[in-house]
Amino acid sequence: MQLWLYCALLAFAAGGCLAQKPRPCRSPPLLEGSMTVITQNGSFSAYAKYAYDAFLQRIRIRELVHANNKTFFQDALLLYQKHVMYLINHKNQTCKKLNLTSQFHPMRIPCNSTFLGQVVLGSLSAPAEGLLVNSWAGQATKEQGQYMLTFTEFGCLPVSVLFNSPNSGWVVTNFFNIVRGIKEPSQFIPPPFCEDDPLETEEEGDFFTAFF
Amino acid sequence: MQLWLYCALLAFAAGGCLAQKPRPCRSPPLLEGSMTVITQNGSFSAYAKYAYDAFLQRIRIRELVHANNKTFFQDALLLYQKHVMYLINHKNQTCKKLNLTSQFHPMRIPCNSTFLGQVVLGSLSAPAEGLLVNSWAGQATKEQGQYMLTFTEFGCLPVSVLFNSPNSGWVVTNFFNIVRGIKEPSQFIPPPFCEDDPLETEEEGDFFTAFF
């Protein structure tokens, strides 16, 4: 009887340990936050505020971009279910409506990623002094590059994304100031002056169009 | 009477707001943790575990270094009060004892740094999902470079250090897995096989010698 109890306890403990290995996860479906993007050679950098709705596949992103020695503001609304994106110019009250060619990518760790490790940013020695994060690596087949993703253990929120490809070199994206939920749902609805703009079917755009 | 009360409350509230602006801080005097260092061109990278004692001005650092296409392990003990550092080779049971030329720099935000901003890594929307950090920038006069420091708001623990100079380019250091206190104080005492080694007065070293 004691042997059975011992075996059962051992199996339970082993199961518990195995279950503690982090698994690829998906971020909450409604988020707002900020991010910075910078390339290895420093020729491109951006500071952006975004709102992300994975239910209705919508992203609104407002960013200050510095590229090719020019600095400009960009405001983009991406409606993946409708396959359209708007580049909004508030100053001139005009819109550029583009055919959105790319698919919606939810914020998540891809299932075929390799777990690199778990670390604490700061410390767990005292409350509010540390953040437990997991890092993952993998190959982005379409872009022929490698990525390294760091997401929080609790909440599956993005902290940083490193991407490297022969075309881009290293691109570092840092995420911060995330809140769960959407403060203002109307930001996913095109402004009134965008509505009458016919779709410029000859021009196409994707997520990266918002940055250039 | 009501006017006085109003003024007093306003002054109290204003004082409270002003007092909330982060100030340069100093890390706890006894710490252990890990760090990674990488240069912009990727020619140098290191993963290190360190123990830091600001009371007695001692640092022990064990690191795996990749530089100039070579990978090697380095174990260094820096005793700033005695002005000596040891490069310890456990395999051969030998030590290199050097004259430690640099001063001890406590982990801290220099007082003349400029406050850049406060952000949350992750989110404060739920417990354990976020970490409040402050970023500071300044000039390192001796090295003729600029630095950007990110430390936790609570605990004043290092998260990242960005340094840029004409000589080095960008150098990115990330800190993690910090614990308050020293697990094993004997790591600051040179191993027995180091004691008899005479000081090689002709050779000098500083903190960066530990990485090369």
Automatic annotation (TrEMBL), chains A, B:
Name of a matching Pfam family: Ependymin
Domain of life (superkingdom): Eukaryota
Presence of keyword Signal: yes
Protein name: Ependymin
Molecular function in Gene Ontology: calcium ion binding
Listed InterPro entries: Ependymin
GO cellular component: extracellular region; lysosome
Organism: Hemibagrus wyckioides
Keywords, sorted A to Z: Signal
Family note: Belongs to the ependymin family.
GO biological process, one term: cell-matrix adhesion
Signal peptide: 1-19
